[in-house]
Amino acid sequence: MAKMINRALLKYHISKLTTLNHQLSFLEAYLEIILNAKQTKKDKTLMEMKKRHSEILEPLMMKAGIHSDNVETKKQDLIDQINKKYHWHFKALSQSKKRAMKKQASSDKINHFADKEAKMHQKQEEALQSLALRYTKDENNIAMHQSNYEINKTKLEQKYLTKQTKLDQKFALDTIKIKKNYSDRIERIKKAIEDERPLLKKYAKGLESATEIPQDVILRLENLNMRFGGLLAVDNLSFDVKKGEIFGLIGPNGAGKTTIFNCITRFYRPTSGLMLFRKNPVEVIHLNDYPVHNIIKQGIVRTFQNVELIWELSILDNLLVAAHTTYRSGFFGQLLHMPKLKREEEVMRSKALGILETMGLLQYQYMIPYGLPYGILKKVELARTLMANPKLIILDEPAAGLNDLETENLAHIIKKIRDDYQATIFLVEHDMGLVMDICDTVCAISFGKMLAIGTPTEIQNNPLVRSAYLGEES
Amino acid sequence: MSILTVYLKAFLKSIQKLSKHPYFGFIVFGVVLLIVQLMNLSGLVTPTLMKTLILVMIYSIISLGFALLLGYAGLASLGTAGFVGLGTYFIGHFSGTLGYPFIVTLVISLIGAIVLGVIVGFISLRIEGLYLGIITLGLSEIMKEVFKSFSAFTNGVNGLSFRNFALFGQPVSDLTVNLLIIFVFIIMILATLNIIKSPTGRALLAMKNSDSAAQSMGISLLKYRLLAFVLATIYAVIAGILYMANQKFSIPTTWSLDFSLNILAAVIVGGAQSITGIILGTFMIFGLNLAILQNIPFFQNNPDAVWIINGLLIILVIMFYPGGLIRLFQAIKYSIISRYKKIKHAWRVYRYGEDD
Question: What's the pTM value of the predicted model, to 2 decimals?
């Protein structure tokens, strides 16, 4: 009885702790976003000011005879501009001359064109000369120009500095104000988390030994059976998936691999058997108790064998769909677009963009998945799983339909996900190269029955596995 | 003078900034409708056109709810007419016959809408696609028969009239009703926009595209199918209330299959995923006849010929623009842009000669 009460209390405190952690990470992420936005705004203003000032200073610099590469390139640019402009003018002139010739206009008119051309040449020369005058050293009054330049430079620098200090001050004030707004809440949450921890330890003390599976196991299947009418798709299967490993499930076509996945993610209800999942260090849940849409909340996310994306939404929105369970605003908050929802959207968006960037998918963010290459879609599905902070990622044939290069890239990404997100990865794959390359443990099944489980080399040398794949050994 | 131009420029700039907000277009639309309504007072707009616009607005509200159901949740329903009829009878009975205050009637209607939506939503969990359409059609026909025979509530086949519409205890003039309709119409558009652009809208679209993906992403089919139906029913009931406030009369034969089919046609013709498209489609199906075709002698002599136009419109749109009329407008826009580019190029060649 006491144990039961303890367990209930523990459950309550764990859920409280998760909510608090979620709030904390949300607030911190949002704070960062606001401060970043302010910083970029400030930088932009200063940059624009600097550009304006340099435009004023450059001609003065030339006059004073101070050499600068910047100004040289600028001068060349201006000369090119003038030349280009007159190039088009001459072209237009020659074209109208051609038209006049075709119409057999009088010689006066054709002479008139020649006059015009000469005038235009003169104009071009003048423009170039005036430009050169602006950008050449004035030998006669060099002292005056130099002092002029110095005065202007110091004046503008002063102006820039005052502006910079003003903006910096404003930024610092804003930062303090915003941080003050949030730090109270953050401190409160942190304190609440600190308060929760000893309670958790207290309640977990008696229960640690009582949990059904060892600490390092994240998923355990016990005597799993799945029967479709007369067909026994999964036959009395039991195995453990350890925390933080890449676990591969292999087997010939029709061995029941996808059925096992569907059982774990509750798309199918197993005929009999237990599926235990370690939600957190002190809590183990029976997956059979949860409906299919609640599995993601427990920390299990899956991908599909044939890509199942939302075809009418952009890639970025596809990722946001996966974050659906992490939104805290209710329906009316969404109906009225409350500030809370806007904040949440911003945080989720930046998270999704971060994930897309690490996957190298940033250029596809506004595209609709329809018509994108298969390899990209597979990657998007993988990126989608990361939005929900998963503990166990289930990949159903991630390398199907990918070429060798993409498969190599995928292996790299899977390993990276395992390391960066501290997630366990459980995959089904036909590409033996990939499986043997990345998996820590491999389990081979055939017709729903376990053949062997072990490290990749053990599996490779197992006679049972060989016979299942290559036929009876002679 | 220069100060004035500076202020003008700043004003234009702020307008430009505002115009990027997704609400902007619709609020401007509402203001234009308001102006048209006020022009009606001075006799610049014909009463027929004004009546048509008000009716189209009411029907647009129904279409918006239906589009959430069809275009976003991917659920086909042919029971719209029954729900709208129910809305008219709710206000006609409770506010008209029994004389309850409007707020009480509104609350009763919303609760009724939610209950009905939940019932249909539960049906939709078991049955999908065409069969759901047939079931909802049956439901609508049952409701029509109930309207016919349940005289205490609906006044039977003679129809229920409603003349004492009052807000806060004050009787309301026709003009105020029209203004109220414009206001509710714009509010409903903005609410729809908010729903579409929120996690709920994405969840509905996810459900439409792939059940299994939606479920594995934590979207409960039960919750969102119920939500979609409840929303559609609430929209329909609100439209029913406005219809009764404007038309002052409701008769069971109005709420039959052809009304539901017309709403379906409006959403399909306009484009099920664009709010502008939905309003356009509703105008095409309901407003075109009253506002434009009735002025042509041929259609005055043969009133049923209007149906031919509607049918033709549906066939043409589905054949050439399956995404709705809104796609046609987009196509026109793109063709104008490409024409402009071509003309510009031709002028360039004339002026400067061929490129080297």
Answer: 0.84
